[in-house]
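Structure tokens please, single chain.
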Amino acid sequence: MIPKYDAIIIGTGQAGPSLAGRLDGAGMKVAIVERDKIGGSCVNVGCIPTKALVASARAAHMARRGTDFGVQIDGCIRVDMARVKARMKEISGQSNQGVTQWLEGLENVDLIRGHAKFQGAKQIDVDGRVIEAEKIFLNVGARPFVPDLKGLEDVDYLTSSSMMEVDFLPKHLIIIGGSYIGLEFGQMYRRFGSEVTIVERGDRLIPRDDPDVSEAVRSFLEKEGVRVRLNAECIHLAKKGGGVAVQVDCDDEPSEILGSHLLLAVGRIPNTDALGLETAGVTANGRGYIEVDDQLRTNVPGIWALGDCNGRGAFTHTSYNDFEIVAANLLDDDARRVSDRILCYGLFTDPPLGRVGMTEQQARESGRKVLIGKRLMKHVGRAEERSETDGFIKILVDADTNEILGAAILGINGDEVVHCLLDVMYAKLPYTVISRAVHIHPTVSELVPTTLQNLRPLD
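Here you go.
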């Protein structure tokens, strides 16, 4: 007899366990299925372990800068990569264990290990064991994309996931991909002591952001010794001298870059290819992302898709918000929608970038009358005190409604400061709520009102 549940959740990333907890609290019998590590990418190979590495890299960087602050450090500063990775694994492991123990302790939830795939719209096969439910929630996440590059089959390469197992220092790390993952790894490994070259096919780094953001990020990375190669339109790989040779067609020389290790950081793809979506009749687009409506329902009644696999957000915070939307609609009679969400994300280089709402380019293309305020970090007291003056604050405002359209805060604490703007945007309040506020001195946040007090028309 096929075991029957009220709900089946496939995947234990950011949305799945939280949803299991809510459904358990509502008295529903739930099966949650995981084929790999509990907690998904964020806990095991993403946010938590990488930010632990970023913290270690910053510690090394600040130790080398000791004399800038009048602190004399005698002797050679050495990075123990084995210890760095052990610290990372300890932090990540605690999160993994915490989620696992919590799930196992839920009264009405069965944690099932194995690979899940559809055997009809209401049935799931888990390695030969079939289970059934009226409600099925897909939270299967995504994985690093491996591009079809000439010569790739002949060389060893790393991804953001396999990089988590590297406990040594690469002599020269070549990173293909100049977006968020590539930039974070590039800076951290340069600070650990590797030579680093970032190869990007486009004409600038992080092309989703405005050119001034891209240029500022490139500037502080190159200042630390990271090499950046842009316009690499044709990339060829080959083994050479125990390492890897990357041939690039660029305007600048040299055309060949020799490195010891290769990291591919060119995006992610959803883990939907082995789910048997066609068996259930669930529609996905050409890139494999499951199509959902504003409440995260698929085209098949009783099946939802949450997190990275639905293409409606590629972040841990959007995955968690997906859980909140589904739970609110199912359990709270609260018609929350994905379209209510304001885009926000961070780039966790040092200094970090906090981004909300529209970019400057999007504001220009919107047809609105737009005001802009911009202030360089070198004019922010907190940044000067810390001798970390790279970056700027940039805020965009609708000239007719006075509502904040978007912002980029690239600089010390930018990933935290940007939230004071985001909360006002959700409240749909005018920018004057912040521009007239009194913020604590000396902080980065105190210059947000100042920036808003100096708005000008966007040229």
